[in-house]
Please model this.
Amino acid sequence: MKILVTGAEGMLGQDLCPIFEDEDYEVVETNKNTLDVTNEIQVNNIIKKENPDILIHCAAYTNVDEAEKNSDTVALINVKGTENIAKACAKNDIIMVYISTDYVFDGENNSPYMPNDKPNPINNYGLTKFQGEQMIQKYCEKYYIVRTSWLFGHHGKNFIETMLSLSDKSEIKVVDDQFGCPTWTVDLSDGILNLLQNEEEFGIYHICGKTPTTWYDFAKEIFMQAGKNVNLIPCKTKDFPRPANRPKYSVMNSENFKINWKKSLKKYLELRIEE
Model:
């Protein structure tokens, strides 16, 4: 079976592609230089030429704070680019997998968000990802919208590396009033693989860490597992104002994907040391 991956050189793509190759899928890797998702003609030509059975759309504008300042660019990539991909997949009868985010929600829930809960994004990044979801639902019949959260992987900037880079500071303040579910790119890739291999019903899925935590408690776990003694101080979101609003509670229900993020963190750190 042939799979085309957009954004293959991103943090998720660099773990996802080899995982699918290990399962004997033929993987066509594309990046922004070989497939400009904002160019509808190029999208149509490449997808028609490659004729994959499945397309996994990882390419996106993901800098949450910069998205507030670059609204035209983020909309072009996340909305128009996704529309181009969705239309081409529908035209060629290709199954589409779209990577979305917990930031489609406003964070006002008191219990984990279900896949059918109504999105209400509070920042521009979340808005454009939700609009991307709408494009897929508008054009495609065969699709999986996969929402994930607090993603970390070895091939990109992430919270773990940020914390470890600060470990020699006299003290570190970390937000303790935002709740979410850390997710390793390897676990997300495995979850997508399972969706496809099990031929699950098309629709929206949440694939993320099972147990909610705060950024502060996530940092505590990182330093404990890394064996680092750090003076970690909890603080409030208001103490660290950012250009983009963050949902205070973006915990998602992922019952079908029982991912223990603490065990995944342990594996992540072990692999990091080996490298």
Summary: The CA atoms of residues 124 and 136 lie 19 Å apart. The chain has a mean pLDDT of 96. The radius of gyration is 18 Å. The longest strand covers residues 95-101.
